[in-house]
């Protein structure tokens, strides 16, 4: 990389810079997402927001919180709330299985939150021109659709999913 | 002088949270944080030094030169520090503060009222600039700072009172080698009529440091060593000669005898003394070239030279302490916690190995090793905790400065009596204690202690006393502020509470319950607003702050005799002792400091009144809550064995019913991270073995809730 003075600050900028060097056209910039499954459907989150993915561990229920909060887990000394993404998106209830994972997200303010999902699939790398606006789909937490082959993956709007005020 | 109101605490907290959440360039924030914390430390030190200077002057004493020097060095460090970080406002102010102090320490100006005022203003403005900086405001020079700087410039430009004019029979080379400060000390000693002598001594080159130190301290017993200079006189190989410039009341020959030196080794430099002046160092013996004859290790006549050596001394002590971000200690604490959990997993494994006949030996061996590991882990944990501990002294000193200032600004005569300043507490707790304690002390000064004449009329000593006392009790630290003032008039409290609709007109309240009302929001027993203790915000904030630290505040007062506010705090926030209880299939931790007792429930002790359950505890009726229903953990099974945990916050009690008591344990309370964060009744969570997180109950919230519902109007109700 060239001088650190102009080091790009975000992944986005980094990808653009890389694309520019390789002579790739704008719009063909690659972006990375973590894709996972909920109720049989594919979903994704921007990889920059994912701190780690952990296996299911004992979740301690917390009283007096919205039902979407399943409880808290202990993560190497940190106590982190786990949001049941099925409940949050209004999908049918199902008890976690061996395949279930907790996707730990970085919050904007330095705190972290866990999202309980059915299974994690892979890291999705697609170019920006394959990101489509959300079709006003079923869940208001969807920010956009990612075209993966002939399948659409719902990209979640992290801030809206984490905002439990509504 | 600007006074910070009691609301400043809320602001401070808001600010620190905002700062924590601010993203941005990490390195800058970190460096900034370090700058602010170091600058605050220096500023605090200067405030203390300034208060001591002002006090000394008030008593009419000569300013202690070492004190002026110390404050000069503080200003000097702050100048360097803020310059390094490009904080011009603070750098300019401290530069000018340094100028004023420099003139004082060199005796070019007297420490009079003007000087004190300039110093006080400069320190106050630096404090303000630092606050504004923390608020993310400008780093430049404010208007008031510019005004002060102009006044300081005018003051320092005034003609100096004393000019050198050394009227001494001293080798000009010696005179020239003196630093400005040494010159000042020389003048000062002459003014006081002391004699000045040059003491010559030679030492073996290998051991001269010890010899010189011995000689120096011997001279100090009878006077002052103004300067120590290597002497160029003839001396045998392997010997090194020194000239000490000494100021004393003794004659040269007497001094020589005291120092066990030959008479000719001590030569008087004071003119008019009868003694001859043998063996004056010959300028001719100086080397031919232009180097100064006294090849001193320091730069002669440089104003900063004396600081150089002094700072060398302080640098050495600094190198023995390390400044550590408390968050790093938190990380270490986390690691220790994890190790403890890993250890219990190992212990489980060892247990199952031991139960199997084939591996029983190995299991037993493993258990033995684990015992050792556990001991070391405990030591490690204690060690990390100890590092977080700081004495309360700093906070107490801050308070005593506030009282001194109040005493100067008002016509009250109050003395602050401090005891147990060495009592240690977790640094985080100590920081959060400053504002509540400040509030309590100001309250006592302002409202409790009567004016001198009123005190005399009441048969009390003219001077009021606020006693601030700290001591350790088990795992708690108790801090009590006791005044000998007028005490709280519970009838006034009652009237106010009725006026505000907090208590019904005909409600019967005990004296204790009435005193408790002092902690209710919005109830101040004085109608007038004063500058020192602010308006309205009062003991309710103190209680909220102390409760947030896991502590307890109690108040006791006797009319005419005084009031005592007692705060009981855990020694550390990092680790608390907890009672582990179970309800349905969940476990909870209850901080042990709010558990008064536990008992197996006799179902006949549960009574109903007004649609609520009460616990009859030896004839006293306590509000009763079932943990399972309080937190909707599941159906309450009747007929099952149950335990009552009696919780207490201050005088308020609550009976909490649980299914199981699972023992005591040291736990590390962690905040809950995520979108919700704060849940009423939950103080945080902790890790317990391999079962994941366990919630820690917020006892004061539970007790408050139960009381609120009990009394409907918010006031506690008599239930006996």
In short:
Chain A has 166 residues and is mainly beta. Helices cover 12% and strands 43% of the residues of chain A. Chain A is built from three helices and eleven strands; from the N terminus they run αβββββαββββββα.
Question: How is the topology of this model organized?
Answer:
The complex is a heterodimer of chains A (about 170) and B (about 725).
Chain A: H1 11-21, E1 30-38, E2 41-46, E3 50-55, E4 69-75, E5 78-84, H2 85-88, E6 101-106, E7 112-117, E8 119-127, E9 131-133, E10 142-148, E11 151-156, H3 158-162
Chain B: H1 8-21, H2 26-58, H3 65-84, H4 88-105, H5 113-134, H6 143-157, H7 172-177, H8 180-191, E1 195-204, H9 208-222, E2 223-230, E3 239-248, H10 252-258, E4 266-268, H11 305-318, H12 326-355, H13 360-387, E5 389-391, H14 393-409, E6 414-419, E7 424-426, H15 427-448, H16 452-457, E8 464-473, E9 476-483, H17 490-499, H18 511-516, H19 539-548, E10 552-558, E11 562-570, E12 576-583, E13 586-591, E14 595-600, E15 606-609, E16 612-617, E17 620-626, H20 627-630, E18 643-649, E19 652-658, E20 660-667, E21 672-673, E22 682-687, E23 693-697, H21 699-711
Parallel strand pairs in B: 6-8, 13-23, 17-19
Antiparallel strand pairs in B: 1-3, 1-4, 2-3, 5-7, 8-9, 9-11, 10-11, 12-13, 12-20, 14-18, 15-16, 16-17, 18-19, 22-23
Helix pairs in contact in B: 2-3, 2-5, 2-14, 3-4, 4-5, 4-6, 5-6, 12-13, 14-15, 15-19
How would you describe this protein?
The complex is a heterodimer of chains A (166) and B (720). Chain A is mainly beta and 166 residues long. Chain A has one domain: OB fold (Dihydrolipoamide Acetyltransferase, E2P) (Beta Barrel), CATH 2.40.50.180. Chain A has 3 helices and 11 strands; from the N terminus they run αβββββαββββββα. In chain A, the strands form 2 sheets. Chain A has a 6-stranded mixed beta sheet. Chain A has a 5-stranded mixed beta sheet with strand order 3-6-7-5-4. In chain A, strand 9 (131-133) and strand 10 (142-148) form a beta hairpin. The longest helix of chain A has 11 residues, at 11-21. Chain A is globular, with a radius of gyration of 17 Å. Chain B is α+β, with helices and mostly antiparallel strands and 720 residues long. Chain B has 5 domains: 8-157, Four Helix Bundle (Hemerythrin (Met), subunit A) (Up-down Bundle), CATH 1.20.120; 169-275, Alpha-Beta Plaits; 329-387; 390-570, Heat Shock Protein 90; 576-711, Beta Barrel (OB fold (Dihydrolipoamide Acetyltransferase, E2P)). Helix content of chain B is 45%, strand content 21%. Chain B has a 6-stranded mixed beta sheet. A 5-stranded mixed beta sheet of chain B has the order 6-8-9-11-10. In chain B, strands 20-12-13-23-22 form a 5-stranded mixed beta sheet. Mean pLDDT of chain B is 77; it is low at 1-27, 159-166, 272-319, 527-537 and 710-720. The interface between A and B is medium-sized, with 34 and 34 residues.
